[in-house]
Each structure stands twice: as structure tokens, then as C-alpha cells.
User: Fold this.
Amino acid sequence: MSTNLQFLEEINSAGEVTAFDMNNIFDKGYDQYNIYVNLEDSSTNGGYMGLRFFDSTNTIISGNEYDWSGQQLKSYSGFDNSWQAQNNSQIAPIVVGTNDDFRGGGALIRVFSPDNSSSYTFITAQSATYMDSGMDGTKTIGVHTVAEKITGVRLDPQSVNMSLSASIYGVE
Assistant:
């Protein structure tokens, strides 16, 4: 198991945004990249965040090329296993449950094989946030089902704007 992290870049949203783009963060020669996301604030309580990739021309991949499954874990009620889709336009949930009073949260997204144009690109993600109802967590797996080179990631808040920062690492 690889455990040596090489810091590559830090990116900030500079305020609440409807999409958080991290372009040209891959193609550095690693089989795995870790993205540590810090959710600083959001425009409202609730909402969730999905993920899309950028292809080798830096165009967002928004077609139905993603399969995923996730579990939402809640401190205030039972867990939710209904997060799943095939042939979807994004991978979700990356984060569920936001708060508009700077309680924040975070996520770790592991991206596998984005540099390899002959392989699918896979992710695992886990997150923890706090909203008025209590703690929310997620565990998600996903795949981009077209073998092509991936250059970046878009985090897509749904029904909410978010203020974010991210640190990107290559894993040796």
C-alpha cells in the first residue's frame, strides 16, 4: 500500500461558488491522487456535492459516463443507502449536509488512474459535515466508465453555494 504523499497544489474558491474547478491537477506521474477538501461555509443548510471530471481537452465530462454508489451516515436518524446510479452525469454524494454558519466539514477524495488513457478512472470518497440536525457523513465509490485521460475535477454543489479549499497530493 502506498503511503508517501507528495504535495502538489492548493486551490481556494475565493468565496461561495456554484462549481469548484480544479483543472490540470493530474498528469504528474502518479497512479493515485488524494484531494483533501475543506468545506468552509455554504449559502444554506442542506444540499450535497457531486463530482465530474475534466477530459484531456479540459472539457467537463457531463454525459452519462459515471456509475456510483454511496451511503449517507447521520447522527440524527438512520443511514441512507439510496445513493446509487448507473449511466449518470456525475458521482455523488461527495458531501451531504452543509451549514450556513461556518461549521464546515471536510472530505477525502482518492482518484485512481486518471493519467492512464487506457483505463477507467475510479474514486473513493468519504466526508464529514455538521448541519443543524447533527453530523452527516458519506462513503462513496464511483467510476468514470470511459477509458480516457483525466486532467481535473469539478466539485458541483447541488441546491447550495459553497466556499471551499482543496489540497492535492500525489501518492507514491
Summary: The mean pLDDT is 89. The longest strand covers residues 32-42.
